[in-house]
Specification:
316 residues, alpha/beta, Quinone Oxidoreductase, Chain A, domain 1, Rossmann fold, 7-stranded mixed beta sheet, 26% helix, globular, binds zinc ion
Length: 316
């Protein structure tokens, strides 16, 4: 089968043997993969096929697998982690203190071969059932969709009917967040990508009465972070997503409203994906996003890989 490898910084398709299925592993025929620049920069591992977030159909299962059967439609999922450390006990299994030990060597697209191939062999812990979804949409959902869902859930009670929620940015992640907000909460959604002082004054004037209860920042720029802290109301929630570097972009904030909270988020917890899949059963995720086929993707150069915006789906 074809498998994408990074050779001297650029992708190349090579022919490899189909994966072997271990006792707790599932062999998946890959249909589509959601990719981000981190797959090819921060997380790139020489010799490993990238692709952490994929959708496909189960081709074979190991003898100890209980949750999946041949023919099931699946998406990759955050593995859920240990359930005993501080992060897991508060529901933040994405930051499990024991994940490095529990999953060393078996994380698809990180230290084991990932989804940019005809098939991927993966521990069942990294999968979830997604039977009702189109496979390219499923790949978008388990990548960008779950990231958006984590941002919404991170804002907590600020996402409550009647509140105003601002979403900053123009990416597919920002669009996806707005679509999800419309589906899950009766909030007024404000799309912002003009971070000028004039627009800041306008937003503050327009929403002076009730204030903006949550600001979801889907943009990696300091400008967007500054805008967010300027418009967030007293007691509001600011969520910084799409950071990529593992650290918040915000510089020490000169002015911030009392009781406002800032939360910098990484990807998502397993519960976010389960919640998203429930939502998708009721309402499709209609968000425009870019798609390329695997052959075309293999012609990208290193610069293009490093510039991938959230939301790109590679169809295998
Ligand atoms: Zn843990």
């Amino acid at each position: 089968m074809k498998s994408l490898k990074i050779i001297d910084g650029s992708p190349d398709l090579v022919e490899v043997q189909a994966g072997v299925t271990g006792a707790n592993d599932v062999l998946v025929d890959v249909a589509a993969v959601g990719v981000s620049r981190d797959d090819f920069t921060a997380l790139a591992n020489p010799g490993v096929t990238p692709g952490r977030r994929f959708a496909g159909t189960v081709a074979a299962v190991g003898h100890a697998v209980t949750g999946f059967a041949v023919g099931d439609v699946v998406v990759s999922a955050p593995p859920g982690a240990c359930g005993a450390c501080g992060a897991c006990l508060r529901g933040d299994d994405a930051y499990c203190a024991r994940a490095e030990v529990l999953y060393a060597g078996i994380r698809p697209g990180v230290d084991a071969d990932g989804g940019l191939a005809g098939q991927v062999n993966v521990s069942e812990k990294f999968l979830a059932l997604a039977p009702e979804l189109d496979l390219a949409v499923a790949a978008f959902a388990c990548d960008t969709g779950v990231h958006a869902m984590h941002a919404l859930r991170s804002a907590g009670d600020a996402i409550t009917a009647g509140n105003t929620v601002a979403v900053l940015g123009t990416s597919a992640l920002a669009a996806c967040t707005r679509v999800l907000l419309d589906v899950v909460a009766a909030v007024e959604v404000l799309a912002i990508s003009d971070y000028s002082a004039e627009n800041q004054a306008q937003v503050l004037a327009d929403f002076a009465h009730d204030g903006i209860a949550a600001v979801l920042v889907m943009d990696r720029t300091q400008q967007a972070c500054d805008f967010a802290t300027a418009i967030a109301a007293t007691g509001s929630a600011i969520v910084l997503a799409a950071n990529g570097t593992g650290e918040a972009l915000v510089q020490p904030m000169p002015v911030m409203r009392y009781e406002a909270s800032v939360r910098a988020i990484d990807y998502a917890n397993r519960a976010d994906l389960i919640e998203l899949l429930k939502v998708l059963k009721l309402s499709p995720l209609e968000v425009e996003h870019e798609r390329v086929c695997l052959d075309e993707f293999a012609s990208f150069d290193a610069d293009r890989l490093a510039a991938i915006e959230p939301g790109l789906v590679v169809v295998v």
